[in-house]
Amino acid sequence: MYDHLGLKVRDLAASVRFYVAALEPLGHVVSSQDETIAGLGPKDAPGLWLHQATSSAGTGVHIAFRAADHAAVDRFYSAGLKAGGRDNGGPGLRTDYSPTYYAAFLLDPDGNNVEAVCLR
Length: 120
Description:
Helices cover about 20% and strands about 35% of the residues. With about 120 residues, it is α+β, with helices and mostly antiparallel strands. A hairpin with a 6-residue loop joins strand 3 (about 35-40) and strand 4 (about 50). Helix 1 (about 10-25) packs antiparallel against helix 2. It is globular. The model has no long low-confidence stretch (mean pLDDT about 90).
């Protein structure tokens, strides 16, 4: 659970394209944007903020977004790949986490590990 997250990104436009495509199947949209920042999340409630880095952005952040069902996880993965994300674990059950943990993992344009997960 979180209120909001902020990521520094090297290329704001590329990151916005990736997150818009990957998160649309989960019901998230861009709620606020200018030349240096973009806020995404449920309509009028951005929880993920992308900030244009003024120096080299760090990598290694992991973000997991809750998905309503397995189909939304699948759509997240497909849309994210088409928008420039890289595979970091295709959709499927992760029974080593729990018997019902269905997830997919992508690397965003800055190498952050982005996950969609359904626990049903």
